[in-house]
Amino acid sequence: PGAVGNALPSQVVDHYENPRNVGSLDRNAKNVGTGLVGAPACGDVMKLQVEVDENGRIVDARFKTFGCGSAIASSSLATEWVKGKTVDEALKIKNTDIAKELCLPPVKLHCSMLAEDAIKAALADYKLKQDPNKEEAEKKA
Amino acid sequence: ARRAAGLTPPSVARSDRSFRIDAQQLQRRFRSLQRAVHPDRFSRSPPEEQLYSEQHSSLINKAYQTLLHPLSRGLYLLELNGVEPAQETDSDADSVFLTEIMEINEKLAEPKNDDMLQEIETLIKVKQEELTKEVTAAFERDDLQEAKKLLAKMKYFANLEDKLKDKKIPS
Predict the structure, then answer these.
(1) Is residue B59 part of a domain?
(2) How confident is the model at residue A77, as a pLDDT?
(3) The Co-chaperone HscB C-terminal oligomerisation domain covers which part of the protein (chain B) (predicted)?
């Protein structure tokens, strides 16, 4: 069921009232990627972190989001979804999937976009930490 | 200079709109407009006039609030100049700024005493004043892209200010 008027959909309420994976991982650990993103239109900030094992699989994820219920729910869902995925699989998570799962109304679609951006930023950070020289070479090319 | 003194959007059709305003003059104009349309004056008037009065009174309130606060005023000025407010996600390039916002949010989320709240409030105020100065300067030299970036930063601090106000309300 979708949102009625200003009421949050039940899926959003659940992730908002019982968010999963709130917290932090050690950003200095080599196998932890940290993504920090913000939505300038609404002033929401979102930090998402992933811990990746030696096989390139995400074994843990945490988030901290300061913003509306939909932003919190989107990042909570994002951390649930990345767990167990490889880095490349997690990069395929789209904001539209998040929005659909949470039945976000059009006015809150940007919250799911922010979560997608947070996942990408965390994974980009992780990749950079694995091969900083490669990144530098690519940047210079 | 004449400022954005017309309080309803269509009447702010001046070529010399500036970001800087005279708050007292704004307030005088607001009051004088409200005196003319306030519902109290129309309580015994026909329904169409009462409706007119309500709608315009409400619009005047909204316009006044928009122009009074630097953030909303700045965003409105961007809009008048055909510049969209920032929509793209802030990330890598802004990590220092975002980290700062995150840290203040985290401090606010902790249980605390009045002294700490006061410290955070002062910090937020100082930052807002700095940003307002920078936005004023950007508009004055017609650097709308810079104004847009600064207004985006102000939005984050406006949210913090709201959260702080909520914290101060005794529960």
Answers:
(1) yes
(2) 96
(3) 94-165
Cβ <8 Å between B89 and A64 = no
Q: Residues B122, B1: contact at Cβ < 8 Å?
A: no
| Residue in A42, A47, A113 nearest the CB of B102 | A47
b vs e for B100-114, b when ≥16 Cβ sit within 10 Å of the residue's Cβ?
Answer: bbbebbeebeeeeee
B90 contacts in chain A (CB < 8 Å): 37-40
pTM here is 0.85
Q: Is A66 helix (H, G, I), strand (E, B) or coil?
A: strand
CATH number at residue A50: 3.90.1010.10
pLDDT tens per residue across span B146-159: 999 999 999 999 99
The SS3 of residue A57 is strand
What's the rounded mean pLDDT across residues A8-33?
86
Which amino acid is residue A124, in one-letter code?
A
Distance from CA of B86 to the nearest CA of A (A): 6
Q: Is B57 helix (H, G, I), strand (E, B) or coil?
A: helix
B45 and B104, same domain (yes or no)? no
- The residue range of the domain holding A64 is 10-130
Give the residue-averaged pLDDT of B57-72.
Answer: 95
pLDDT digits (tens, 9 = 90+) for B42-54: 889 999 999 999 9
| Residues A38-61: tens digit of each pLDDT | 999 999 999 999 999 999 999 999
How does DSSP classify residue B22?
A: -
Q: What is the CATH number of the domain that holds B45?
A: 1.10.287.110
